[in-house]
Amino acid sequence: MLDLIEKVKKNVVAEFRELQLWLEGQEKLLLTKMEEIEKDIMARKEKGLAKHMEEVRSLDHLIQEIEEKHQQPASKLLQDIGSILKKFQAKETYENPVDLLLKPKWTIWDCSDIILLLKIAMKTFRDTLESGLQLQEVNVTVDPDTADPDSLKISEDRKSITGLNGFFSYPSVLGCQMFSSGRHFWDVTVDSTRRWDVGVTSKPVNFKNVHAQTRQWRISGWYMRCTAFSPSECSELVLTERPTRIRISLNCEEGKLSFFDAKTAALLHTFSDASLVGKTLLSYFYLEQGACMTLP
Known about the structure:
- The structure is a single chain.
- The protein is α+β, with helices and mostly antiparallel strands.
- The protein folds into two domains: 1-133; 137-294, Sandwich (Jelly Rolls), CATH 2.60.120.920.
- The protein has helices at residues 2-69, 74-89, 97-100, 102-133, 210-213, and strands at residues 135-137, 142-143, 152-154, 160-163, 172-179, 183-190, 196-202, 216-222, 225-230, 233-236, 245-251, 256-261, 266-272, 281-287, 292-294.
- The strands form two sheets. Strands 1, 3, 4, 6, 11, 12, 13 and 15 form an eight-stranded mixed beta sheet that branches. The chain has a seven-stranded antiparallel beta sheet with strand order 2-5-14-7-8-9-10, with no helix packed on it.
- Helix 1 (2-69) packs antiparallel against helix 4 (102-133).
- The protein is rod-shaped, with a radius of gyration of 38 Å.
- The mean pLDDT is 84.
- Residues 120-296 form the B30.2/SPRY domain.
């Protein structure tokens, strides 16, 4: 037991360390991008300032030339001024400061948009982690509207189910509670050697012929035999003793459904199925005639 705890502790440290390293890497990439923007803006400013100073010097030189020639005869002065202006206009035109900063502006907007995305992603991550870290015990009750009254007898508190004559119907019933996120568990006490099934099912469109329109992930018990059924699996389970109290554990984000012998904590079976992720699921119960179940 202590070895198992130590192994789990190491796994926890490793997973959080991996997450920490990834976040640090993403932070470094984003900060590097921002630093490159700063350098680009400074380089563009220096380039623009250098061009501006060059233009100022050219204007000073032009003014000086005009002042030197203004004593000349009018015809000569006009001819020289035309030559001077033509030479000045031939120089490279000064780049608009707005154009110089256009590319950095787009990059800054992109980084700001990433920050908003990070805030949303972190909130989703925190909510998912906080709900997932806490394994929630569910007070499951069954919904009589999902059962055929001729095939199942359900107690008033909706906690006890007894199989009647299911020859002309499918004796199953669904729980009232729905699951789409987080980690949950509930126990079922089985008091029968007749066939029983427990597990989860996808949410039906309506409550007519539920079994035919849904997909189930369940284990089925009958005497000392136990079988696991899913849309893609059918496997016999090896039992050392017949379980009378089953614990069903559902991890919605991971798409994992596990069944335990609640009295010994022995794992009976686990479904790891990506098709469970993102679905709305309900607890599922099936009882043949004479079988009994109780939800503690």
